[in-house]
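FliI/YscN family ATPase: structure tokens wanted.
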Amino acid sequence: MRPDPAAAAAALALVPREAVQGTVTALGGLTVTLAGFGPLAAIGDRVRIDLPRAAPLLAEIAAFRDGMAEAIALGPLHGLSAGARAVLAPRPALSVSEAWLGRVLDPMGRPMDGRPQPAPGPAPRPTHAPAPEAGGRARLGPRMALGVRALDLFTPVRRGQRLGLFAASGVGKSTLMAMLAGGVAADVIVFALVGERGRELREFLEDDLGPERLARSVVICATSDTAAPVRREAAYAAMTVAEHFRDQGRQVLLLMDSVTRFALALREIGLAVREPPATRGYPPSVFTELPRLLERAGPGPEGCGGAITALFTVLVEGDDHDEPVADAVRGILDGHVVLDRRIAEAGRYPPVDVLRSLSRTAPGVLDAHERPLVAEARRHLATWAEVRDLVRLGAYRPGHDREADAAVALAPAIERVLAQPKGMASDPDEAFSALASAMSMPDSP
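Answer:
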């Protein structure tokens, strides 16, 4: 009699995971080779490896080769040797609850703020979950005030929109994220700090976020010294937390810093299991996982009422905005904001390059009287970028080009509108009123 695959799968599902044991047979680089699991283990499963003189080590199965499972450890391999016992553990899941608000947790939901473990929710949620069905998702909501004039004017956002913040290191991404956390009218804020510098966590919490904003926030952090699967899991855990509150009908703001470090963690995992490097050293699985994560943000299922408005920072290597990760993320999201080092060095914060920034929803967000005002301001800034060097060199002669003369007169006033100190929030009406005033009272060249 031919065996029934469905019956076999059902029988395997009844086997307790804790009873499935294997053995470490080899160690190499970042990988641990395991034998003895057979068909009971699958990609993404966790295993707990017993160490003789330390706490058990968790690892995640990332590949199978020659009948053996290859896992990436979620911690250092010191003290691990061949022959160690490995036990199949539950897949990653989080029991999110109201008690998570105001907390700083690692990707496994363990406290990083010195406080007790938060009370669990009624049911655990898998961290690796699919995005809502495309045909069953709600549409984007109304305009969402971001509290930053440069963004409210030139890259307006609707509820449930996903926007990328593209910048090189040290340009001001963290400062802009703090401004957004204080200016956006959201019920819950979820921060994903992926590969964060350890010394900067308290500075961010105490100086940039503050106790009032932290009270309505959940911070998921994996520092740069953690293993690649932990850094990757920080992004998935934060998305899971955001989905929990979205499904309750709340408006969630998700701020992830950064997608690039998430992609680097994926690259480490892929290369460790001998996946061939493709685009600039990134294996193909990186560009498969990026949309699986990013597509989970946005409006919830129809009738849910909640939405995840997400802003993802992208660390562009060497100021190259066409590098593979930046290019892939830009094609997935609903808009991008470019932070420019030259603008920051000139002293204007936030250093948003409005000419290179774009919101795909802007045509449906701007009112009839706002659209021509923004278009005219863009035109003046673009012309000013062309003639700015001539003005500084003293080679510009007014009276030869009316468009250039208007740009020379108006651009400094527009730049002053875009400047905004940290800790100051504005609303779209105030921003458009300031822009209209700047363009109606030109400075002298």
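Residues 370-393 form the longest helix (24 residues). Residues 205 and 211 are 8 Å apart (CA to CA).

Cheers.
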